[in-house]
Amino acid sequence: MNDKNSQKIVDVIKNFARKHSLFVLAYGTGCGAIEIPATMTSRYDAERFGIRGAATPRQADVLLITGYLSTKTLKRVIRTYEQMQDPKYVIGFGSCTINGGMYWDSYNTIKLLDMYLPVDIYINGCMPRPEAVIEGFIGLQKLIAAGKAEGAKKYKENLDWYRANQKKVIKNWVMPDYNW
Amino acid sequence: MNSLVIMLLIYFAGAILVYAANKFSAVLRDVIVVLAGLLPVALFFSIPAFEAFQFRIAGFDLFWDLGSLAYIFEALVVVVGAASLVYAISYMKGKKNLGYFYMNFFLSLGSMTGILMSQDLISFFIFWEIMTWSSYFIVVFNGYKTNKIGLTYIFFSALGAYAMLTAIVMINTQTGSTMWNDFFIAFAGMSSHYQLLISILFIFGFGVKAAMMPLHIWAADAYSHSPMAYTATFSGVLSKMGVYGLALVMIKLALVSNHFVFSQVIAWLGAVTAALATIYALIQKDIRKLLAYSSVAQLGYIITGIAVGTAMSFMAGIYLAVLHGLFKAALFMVAGAVEKQAGTTDMHKLRALIRKMPLTFITAMVAIIALAGIPPLGGFVGKWMLYESLIGSNHYFLVIVIFFSSTAAFLYAYRFLYGIFLGQEEEEFAHVKEAPLMMLIPMLFFTVLLIVTGTFPGIILGPVANAMNHGMGFRGVQWEMSVLTNVYGDSIHLSVISTIVVVVFIVFALFLILKGRKGTRYVTTKDIANSGEPVRPEDNYHFALDFYKPFERAMAPLYRFKMSEIYGNISDGLVSFFQFTRRLYSGNGQTYVYYVLLFIVILLVFSNQLINR
Amino acid sequence: MMGDIWMTLLGVLVTTLLAFVTGMFYMGASRKITARVQNRVGPPIYQNFLDLIKLQAKDTAIHHGWMQLLGPAFLMVSAVGSLMFIPVLNKGLFFENFTADGDIIFLLYLMVFGSLGMALGAGQTGNPNSAIGVTRGLTQMVGFEIPWVMAIVALILQYHTTNIAEILEAQHRSGVWSMFANPYAFIAALLAAFGMFRYSPFDIVGAPAELASGPVSENGGKFLGTMMSSHAVFAFVKLVLYVDLFMGGADNLVELVIKTFGLYLIPLTYGMVNPRYRTEQAVRYFYGWPTLFGIIAILYAVFY
Amino acid sequence: MELHKEKQLLETLQGVFQLKSGEIKRRHRIEVEVEKKDVVPLLLFVKEKLGYKHLSHISCVDWIEEGRFELIYMPWSHQEQILIMVKVSIPRDAAEMENIDMIWRQANTYQRELREMFGIEFPGFVGDYDFILEDWEDIPPMRRDFDTEAYVKDHYFERPGREDAKDVRTEIAKRSGEQIPDFAKKYSR
């Protein structure tokens, strides 16, 4: 297995499996959570791409941020993300995660999700329809297959930068360390 | 000198010496405790055969000999007794009145030996009384709170003893002898009234100690409130004296083969005891109480096995009796270790001791696996034989009741392990350390013993089969070291089963641990997936309250049935009845005339039937 | 002698592999069928293999103690161990493994071994959801074991043997499958199977929206993967046991697949159209009609 | 329209309490204004004697120019179908009000919100401090002297291209050459 070529083959298999088996932790923030049932059920049927829900962060691969994040929720989302096991991906969902959306001047919601968590792919729209959601997932699958969905790695490498941003909005930082 | 007498003497001399030594030095006392506990073990297992011993005192012939069935129970007495004594040294450290405690401990061990070797009814009864009183004194050892519990215990025990005494007097008037053997021989020739009365009285007397269904209400409290070091012996061995007596009465008097109703009633009582005690065990919040109810339930299986009385079910009953002595002693020792180290036995307070007391956990786990009857450990062997024998002897509904209770036993088994050792860690128990070595040694000894007897049940089955063939009246009982065969001729091979279970377990455990070890690190149990909310230090999400609420809801009708309430009603009824009878004596001459008239009228009304008879 | 050991090992490997692959495909098929019933396309039938590879390739960076590490191993013991004592095909057609060394009462106990070990692993994680799920699962088990045992007792009384291979033989000798020879026992066992397979309405144990998947809520990656494979093996074990006990076994693998899959469809389709029972409702359900059928089955076996 | 129920209620209240003002807003709704000391007696009176069992809401308005907060308690009666709006003014610099969560349990939630969003203190009121905002260090955000835009600029990041925050309606109109009617202009910023 130390051979470079066989490692490459293993990587291809792994990435293929990862691509087609995405367990989504739908952290239902904001208004976007209502689009998820539609995406998962009969009409749009995300399960045909291997996308299914996961109940806890320990089992999940994809963290779906479905809309605006208040600072209070952000703390929990960061904790949830850190509890997920590698490899893990983040999807920012809706314009609120991209630039604040209609909450651009709210005193209590963050505007740019990628300053706090490494977002692999954004789905824009307010709200994005299920077609757009599935399109986003397929985009993520392409990234995974190409081995480019490396948000977790980025997060690990630039942890100090992310922490500084996170601590800027979360004053009382009492959380277990992230060290894996 | 006779080796039986020596063993008896060691115990009784130990009782006196330890009481005397306590006045001088604690170390001397402990040395005597260990010596007098371990010496009988050495003696017992080094002597191949015991001689009989006969003497005459105050006009009665006393005859002591260790029968082949009694041999098994005696082995249990010396082994569990010695282990409990070793355990007690560490467990009872720092308590007062230890001389008194050890004296009673030795007295009850000695009296149990005496019971098992008595071949005559007189010494049997005397030893029985010593056993009852010495155990009573330890039940009330923990202070005045236990007085009421002790009272219930001694009240039922006294009732049983009087029943037994009545039976003994009746036997003496009928046969003119006080020997068990004469009684067994003469029983067949007695009139049916005497047969019925004597058997009922004996079963009542032994049923109290064996915690049989309507007579069990003392058991749960008495087991849970005496010091755990003694409860290991109390529940593990002392209750087996009742089982021993029941086995003698049921099998030797041929109650099973000749009196179908008897064996059915007792078997069903045993099964109902098992079922009800099990569902009560799983709603207890105190681990000692849980184990106490579980003891009652296990005794229910044993009684059923003996009462059904086929060769295999009897064997299962005795095997379970021995095994119950081993694993329940281990479990009570675990409870004692937890009580000693963590300071409480309340499952609502205890949390996650597994990392603090790993060896205790292993003992508890092995003993619980044995208790729950999960292969490859010993409890499974007993349960298997019990089921096969019940099905084979057409007790098909009995087997369902027993199976219900044994499945429900998984619930309290899990509750026991989870309640003490698993769940979320708590600051309050951060200081807890592993139990001291003197407590661990007996516990680990039982662990090893349970594993060995599970794979090679022949170690116990051999003597049992021997006892059944020589002395219990069964013929041609077969046994093998690790093969069990049922009445249909199908067999299971325990060594193969153990090998498969162990090998598969090791393969996957290695797969998971070796592969995971590299990248895996330990995090505290507070670091859980909890919707992202970090568990604060002052929070604890341990789940202990209303553990089996769904089960309680589903079984609500069964929980309404409480034997102690029935006894309460009886006593209330008696009080009001006596008040009523008091009112009959009105002191007025007219009323008495009315009573006489009423009596005559009743006589006239029923005279026809009376005279025609 | 040496050859025997190698043969035994080969048998163990082949049987386990067969059970694993079949079970995985059945689980995939169940997802596909559920999807078609809900008018969806559904995942491909090999989806579970992809899930498994992904889970095994996932990091498992943390654990809550050694009992959690061992939990899935207990499950595997239960699944693979039971498989070793069940004849996959009729006598002489497939590896015998250890079918002569165990019997059905023993299997009853070995089959609960895993859930209890898993429960210990779940308990150590410290997640309250895990423990709540475990208590629900155990309570439900007390429910469905009773009709299941009644059915088995009825079979034992009918055929006067406790060995599974012998029961198979007896069915062949009489020429009647026991599901026809004692239909009540089959009905009782089938109703008990609903609880055993834990499809809805009896899926309260791992209710994802309510308990965060219950006992497995702290387990991801390799733990979850191992559990998934053990579930696959275990599903196969249960199905083959039912086929052996009630449908006269199978003569070849195709027949086996047809029979087991047909059997598998029953709890699956029953679950698709049913909501979820609460725990005590589930227990009461099992103590209702299934137990009644069990009693009838025993009486039928005794008096017929 | 017949408003005799409302009139009757207002007369009752005027008879018992010294109202600073009282008027019938419309059917099902009257509005009274009282002194701070009269609030709790009045609420108890309407709840216990008149059957206004339900507290719909406690609202607050920041009259920064007049230096006061106006609290509005809204009990509602299911029998009478009337909502009473009990107004009370409290000084802005010493914002303090009596705790009523023993009269209505749900007042707890409203008071927590008021405490957090306006900084109104309720002496004797126990309730977890963090409600919606966690670890808030600035002045309470619903006070009108709180500068939201400056706060957002100071604390959060902004995606380039969003600096001006232009009005969407006007921008689209500009692009397409559409004329916005005058009456519609007041709705756009």
Write up this protein.
- The complex is a heterotetramer of chains A (180), B (613), C (304) and D (189).
- Chain A has 180 residues and is of the alpha/beta class.
- In chain A, 42% of the residues lie in helices and 12% in strands.
- Chain A contains 7 helices and 5 strands; from the N terminus they run H-E-H-E-E-H-E-H-E-H-H-H.
- Chain A has a 5-stranded parallel β-sheet with strand order 2-1-3-4-5.
- In chain A, helix 1 (4-20) packs antiparallel against helix 5 (130-145).
- The longest helix of chain A is centred in the N-terminal third of the chain and has 17 residues, at 4-20.
- The mean pLDDT of chain B is 83.
- In chain B, helix 1 runs antiparallel to helix 2 (26-46) and helix 8 (192-209) packs antiparallel against helix 10 (228-252).
- Among the domains of chain B are: 254-487, no CATH class; 562-612.
- Chain B has helices at 3-24, 26-46, 68-91, 98-117, 121-139, 147-175, 180-187, 192-209, 217-225, 228-252, 255-258, 260-281, 287-308, 311-342, 358-372, 378-392, 396-421, 437-455, 458-469, 494-517, 549-554, 556-559, 563-584, 589-612, and strands at 53-57, 60-64, 483-485, 491-493, 521-522.
- Chain B is 72% helix and 3% strand.
- By secondary structure, chain B is mainly alpha-helical.
- Chain C has one domain.
- Chain C contains 13 helices and 1 strand.
- Chain C starts with a helix and ends with a helix.
- Chain D is α+β, with helices and mostly antiparallel strands and 189 residues long.
- Chain D has a single domain (4-136), classed as Beta Polymerase, domain 2 (2-Layer Sandwich).
- Chain D has helices spanning 4-16, 39-48, 107-118, 148-155, 168-176, 182-185, and strands spanning 21-26, 29-33, 54-63, 68-77, 82-91.
- In chain D, a hairpin with a 2-residue loop joins strand 1 and strand 2 (29-33).
- The two termini of chain D are 39 Å apart.
- The interface between B and C is large, with 75 and 76 residues.
- Strand 5 (521-522) of chain B pairs parallel with strand 1 (62-63) of chain C.
Keywords:
heterotetramer, B: 613 residues, mainly alpha, two-stranded antiparallel sheet, 24 helices, globular, D: 189 residues, alpha+beta, Beta Polymerase, domain 2, 6 helices, 22% strand
